[in-house]
Amino acid sequence: MPTTREKERAAAHGRAPSVTGSNDFLAAQQRAVRLTEILEKEHGTPDLGNLPDPLEELVWIALTRQTHRLNAVRSWAALRARYPTLQDVLEAPEGELREVLRPAGFSTQKARWIQASLVRVAEAFGSLTSEPLRAMADDEAERFLSNLPGVNLKSAKCVLLYSLGRQVLPVDTHLRRLAERVGLVERGLSEHRIHQSLEAIVPPTLRYALHVNAIPHGRMFCTALRPHCAACPVAALCDHARRSAGS
After folding, report:
1. Looking at the predicted structure, is the pLDDT value of residue 16 above 50?
2. What is the torsion angle, in degrees rounded to the nearest 10, for the CA atoms of residue 27, residue 178, residue 157 and residue 41?
3. CA–CA distance from 117 to each of 60, 130, 201, 224 (Å)?
4. Residue 133: pLDDT over 90
5. What's the pTM value of the predicted model, to 2 decimals?
6. Distance in angstroms (rounded) separating the CA atoms of residues 163 and 161
7. Residues 171-208: pLDDT tens digits?
8. Phi, psi of 136 (to 5 degrees)
9. What's the rounded Cα separation, in Å, for the pair 16 and 185?
10. Would you state the pLDDT for residue 24?
11. Cβ neighbourhood burial of 190 (10 Å; 0-12, 13-18, 19+)
12. Residues 139-149: what's their mean pLDDT?
């Protein structure tokens, strides 16, 4: 295993500091490429319903947190029916907004996140516009988004990926679980470290497909409990599947 100093040196030079297995960067990258190819063939890179407008995507992401997708869809429809514009959302009484968002769960927290984020955007940009974000470099836009209320690194990268067309890699619970089991990263990395590690080994042009296809794969095969390794198309690449087959 690499020493702490070796890991720090690798991170400083943009290489993956937390690659497991042979610790061979090229081997890890090849495995990531093959994984992406298999997932794309299996799932076809589905449209997950994300939104082209960055500010609308921020609101949508807030609604999807800690709830079933169907609940988020219902809340989004109710929100847009009640408030035609994001300015209307910003100016809505918090209690009223909370009731509209109730189907999504945690409506008090989500209403506060959404309105506080919209206020921050309007203060920073002079109005509710996403145009300054489009002009920012990836790291600058990521920092701005990550500092909004209720927006973590994964959510910021989702906005960058889906709405701004940037070649970043959001790591949600499905991709984390898959990457750990396949052996691309160590288990238990912080949010920052797992994003850093996977972006180091996944080529930019493959990041969208890997992120999108890991979601249905995590729901169908690589489930949190009792994963369906015997039927999984990724099993030949997967350290966890090999261990399970040998036990």
Report:
1. no
2. 80
3. 12, 12, 32, 32
4. yes
5. 0.88
6. 6
7. 999 999 999 999 999 999 999 999 999 999 999 999 99
8. -80, 150
9. 9
10. 81
11. exposed
12. 98
* Confidence (pLDDT) at 247: 62
The position carrying tokens 């949010």 is 191
Break the chain into its structural domains and give their ranges: 4-46+170-246, 54-163
Name the CATH superfamily housing domain 54-163. Hypothetical protein; domain 2 (1.10.340.30)
pLDDT average, residue stretch 28-41 = 97
Distance set, CA 198 to CA 29, 78, 97, 105 (Å): 9, 37, 37, 31
Q: Which helix (H) or strand (E) holds 43?
A: helix 25-43
Is 245 exposed, middle or buried (CB count within 10 Å of its CB: 0-12, 13-18, 19+)? exposed
List, as own/partner pairs, every contact residues 44-51 make where C-beta atoms lie below 8 angstroms and the sequence separation is at least 24, other chains included.
Answer: 44/213, 45/208, 45/209, 45/212, 45/213, 46/212, 46/213, 46/216, 48/212, 48/215, 49/73, 50/158, 50/162, 50/163, 51/162, 51/163
| Cα separations in angstroms, 187 against 5, 14, 26, 79, 193 | 20, 20, 20, 38, 11
d(CA 5, CA 246): 35
Fold of 4-46+170-246: Endonuclease Iii, domain 2 (1.10.1670)
Determine the length of the chain.
247
Whole-number average pLDDT of the chain: 91
Specify the 3-state DSSP secondary structure of 107: helix
- Nearest CA-CA partner of 232 in 44, 35, 45, 22: 35
Give 90-118 pLDDT, tens digit per residue: 999 999 999 999 999 999 999 999 999 99
